[in-house]
């Protein structure tokens, strides 16, 4: 009985425990069924996440264009290779989807990635040992081209896969690099060091300044799938489209920029200078058409970069005698400049300074103030400030020309120069560009008032921001007049005087900065370079910054160009002056740039006996008839192709052109390369526009060599290298006076 009672009690206890457990489990089940949650986690959401694939849709970074919609920076598709090393990813042993043979994979893959086979095999095996799902191969496995990807795919290696990515590509290489800047891929990794996202980030230039506008917003696509990763029929697909970045249009003109880059390259090759800076601007609008520095860099291949700074806007320096432009303008505006008044050149001493101001030449005797400007006399500039207008008045003009502030150009890292004006000696040296510092961009901005009837314009390089998908203009930059430091009458008188710096035999720019077809107004500069060790200035005939600020055509300037060359290696044995490398750049870019812009030559000898003609109907007409009609009017006609009918032309019906102008006729047959010997750059550029050619310009003057042979068939976007050379002038020798800006 006793045993029976114990059995009954234990049975009751067990039954009670079973009931409690049953009620607990049932209750939990009912709770989960009712709430759909476990530990605060929604079962529906958890299930959806386990069977939902989500992929990111990459947004494209906006393209940077020049003023004519030539791409200067754009995205290019590349590939990143990775290897799946987790064997659980393979469901069919006969068709593995993971790396099943690390040694074989490494041996075949290594040559195509330019890697050591043992290193590659070690990377795969380490991933297997550490239970990694996939591994990558560092920088060697990134940024693969389409051709490289196809070569690897042809090996049919199990487990080798690719991720499509974008990198920033700069089609012109070393080209306005300090303006455009560059952007690089930046990997975002998780705690395990795995790359979870790659973004493109602007580092310098426009890429940095407008990064927020250029970068887009990524989208996504998600859908439900089964355990084999196959998309379900009822997949509940959700697509959120990517929003691409905005396109940036620059004021830069690719052809003028090319002229500048090629000219600078030739000067670097011949003279090996320490630095070159150059900028080309439209003085009426403030649009920067070209800007470059040396040393520069190729944004496609960022290795050892000698100079990250955009010296045109970021490196103030003592400008030397180009500053006399503004001393002259201030004196004329104040009514104290008499071009015929005489003064004694050589030295100038006032009581407030211990040592006299000196001209770069011992003396020219008594000369006029106009001759003082032509000869770049420091004494003349100093007397205009100290005796004629007064130092306080001159300071007001320096401020009115904005030499005390940044230009506010739409580029990063701009620095402003400093007006050094505390002591009497500083007030004198400021008149001819010593002590006081400025940037090339500040000089060009100030010179716009001289070239533009007294209206000083703000320089800019971004013309508009465009929605890349709709084409809508989101932001547009326009001409902004930021000051009127001088009157229109003064600006005309300054231009007339500066023209004599080039045309007068006494001028420091005589026979150096003359152009064939256009008159030039400008001022030379030879600035001394501070010597940190001595506290003074460097000595030696090459230790200067040689520069020129010029405007053309003189009566109505369409372009301002500033060029400076620091410490070139000159041929001193043959008396080569520092103006030689500067004038090569200036003349090449200014002459060819004005022709390219269709600016009519203003030199009288170029206009004699040249009339204008109106172009008749051309397209669709007989080639022989059109050629005969145009040649009868005095035109030079070049036929491209072997067809009998004109299909296109470099001119249109109704155009008014000079009677001696070259006209290109395109026929309806195969296109072949014409003989362009003796052609001007203007004619060659018209040919490139008509045939959509990429022309590389070398030298200046007239065409002497072409990389594509005469009669060879050519296609669109084909590259043609054309070498130009100036015509020989047996009766003319080029002599110039080397100006040195010296003060003590």
TrEMBL record:
Record field: transmembrane: none
Keyword annotations: Membrane
Keyword check for Membrane: yes
Pfam families documented for this protein: PASTA (PF03793), PBP_dimer (PF03717), Transpeptidase (PF00905)
Protein name stated in the entry: serine-type D-Ala-D-Ala carboxypeptidase
Taxonomic placement: Bacteria, Bacillati, Bacillota, Bacilli, Bacillales
Major enzyme class: hydrolase
Cited CDD domains: PASTA_Pbp2x-like_1, PASTA_Pbp2x-like_2
Keyword Membrane listed: yes
Localization annotation: Membrane
Domain of life: Bacteria
Segments for region (Disordered): 722-744
Assigned EC number: 3.4.16.4
Biochemical pathway: Cell wall biogenesis; peptidoglycan biosynthesis
């Amino acid at each position: 009985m006793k045993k029976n009672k114990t059995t009954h009690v234990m049975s009751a206890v067990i039954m009670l425990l079973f009931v409690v457990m049953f009620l607990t489990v049932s209750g939990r089940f009912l709770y989960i069924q009712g709430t759909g949650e476990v530990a605060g986690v929604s079962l529906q959401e958890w299930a959806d996440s386990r069977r939902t694939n989500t992929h990111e849709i990459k947004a494209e970074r906006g393209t940077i264009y020049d003023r004519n919609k030539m791409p200067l920076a754009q995205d290019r598709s590349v590939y990143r290779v990775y290897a799946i090393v987790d064997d659980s990813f393979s469901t069919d042993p006969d068709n593995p989807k993971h790396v099943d043979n690390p040694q074989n994979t490494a041996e075949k893959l290594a040559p195509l990635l330019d890697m050591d086979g043992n290193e590659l095999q070690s990377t795969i095996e380490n991933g297997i040992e550490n239970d990694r799902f996939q591994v990558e191969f560092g920088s060697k496995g990134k940024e693969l081209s389409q051709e490289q990807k196809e070569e690897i795919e042809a090996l049919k290696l199990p487990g080798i896969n690719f991720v499509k990515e974008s990198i920033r590509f700069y089609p012109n290489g070393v080209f306005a690099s300090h303006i455009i800047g560059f952007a690089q891929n930046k990997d975002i990794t998780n705690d395990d060091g795995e790359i979870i996202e790659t973004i493109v980030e602007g580092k310098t230039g426009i890429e940095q300044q407008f990064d927020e506008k250029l970068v887009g917003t990524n989208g996504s696509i998600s859908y439900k799938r089964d355990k084999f990763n196959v998309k379900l029929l009822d997949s509940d697909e959700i697509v959120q489209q990517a929003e691409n970045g905005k396109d940036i249009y620059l004021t830069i003109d690719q052809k003028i920029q090319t002229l500048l880059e090629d000219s600078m390259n030739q000067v670097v090759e011949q003279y090996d200078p320490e630095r070159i800076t150059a900028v080309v601007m439209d003085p009426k609008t403030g649009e920067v058409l070209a800007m470059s520095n040396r040393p520069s860099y190729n944004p496609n291949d960022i290795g050892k970069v000698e100079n990250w700074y955009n010296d045109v806007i970021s490196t103030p320096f003592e400008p030397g005698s180009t500053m006399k432009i503004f001393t002259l303008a201030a004196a004329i505006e104040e009514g104290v400049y008499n071009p015929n008044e005489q003064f004694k050149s050589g030295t100038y001493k006032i009581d407030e300074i211990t040592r006299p101001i000196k001209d770069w030449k011992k003396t020219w005797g008594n000369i006029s103030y106009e001759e003082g400007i032509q000869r770049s006399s420091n004494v003349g500039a100093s007397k205009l400030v100290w005796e004629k207008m007064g130092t306080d008045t001159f300071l007001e003009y320096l401020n009115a020309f904005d030499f005390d502030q940044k230009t506010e150009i739409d580029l990063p890292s701009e620095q402003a120069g400093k007006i050094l004006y505390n002591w009497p000696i500083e007030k004198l040296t400021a008149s001819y560009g010593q002590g006081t510092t400025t940037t090339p961009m500040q000089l060009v901005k100030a010179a716009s008032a001289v070239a533009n009837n007294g209206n000083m314009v703000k320089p800019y390089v971004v013309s508009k921001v465009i929605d890349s998908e709709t084409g809508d203009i989101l932001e547009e930059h326009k001409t902004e007049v930021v000051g009127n430091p001088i009157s229109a009458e003064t600006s005309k008188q300054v231009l007339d005087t500066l023209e004599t710096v080039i045309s007068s035999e006494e001028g420091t720019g005589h026979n150096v900065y003359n152009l064939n077809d256009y008159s030039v107004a400008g001022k030379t500069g030879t600035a001394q370079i501070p010597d940190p060790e001595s506290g003074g200035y460097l000595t030696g005939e090459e230790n200067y910054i040689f520069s020129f600020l010029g405007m053309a055509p003189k009566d109505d300037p369409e372009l301002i160009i500033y060029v400076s060359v620091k410490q070139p290696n000159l041929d001193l044995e043959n008396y080569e002056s520092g103006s030689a490398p500067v004038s090569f750049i200036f003349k090449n870019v200014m002459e060819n740039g004005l022709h390219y812009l269709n600016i009519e030559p203003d030199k009288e000898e170029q206009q004699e006996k040249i009339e204008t003609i109106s172009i008749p109907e051309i397209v669709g007409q007989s080639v022989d008839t059109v050629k005969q009609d145009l040649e009868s009017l005095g035109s030079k006609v070049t036929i491209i192709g072997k067809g009998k009918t004109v299909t296109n032309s470099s001119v249109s019906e109704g155009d008014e052109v000079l009677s001696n102008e070259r006209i290109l006729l395109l026929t309806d047959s195969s296109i072949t390369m014409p003989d362009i010997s003796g052609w001007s750059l203007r004619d060659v550029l018209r040919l490139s526009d008509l045939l959509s050619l990429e022309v590389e310009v070398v030298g200046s003057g007239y065409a002497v060599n072409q990389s594509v042979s005469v009669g060879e068939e050519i296609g669109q976007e084909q590259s043609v290298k054309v070498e130009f050379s100036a015509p020989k002038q047996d009766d003319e020798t080029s002599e110039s006076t080397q100006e040195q800006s010296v003060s003590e």
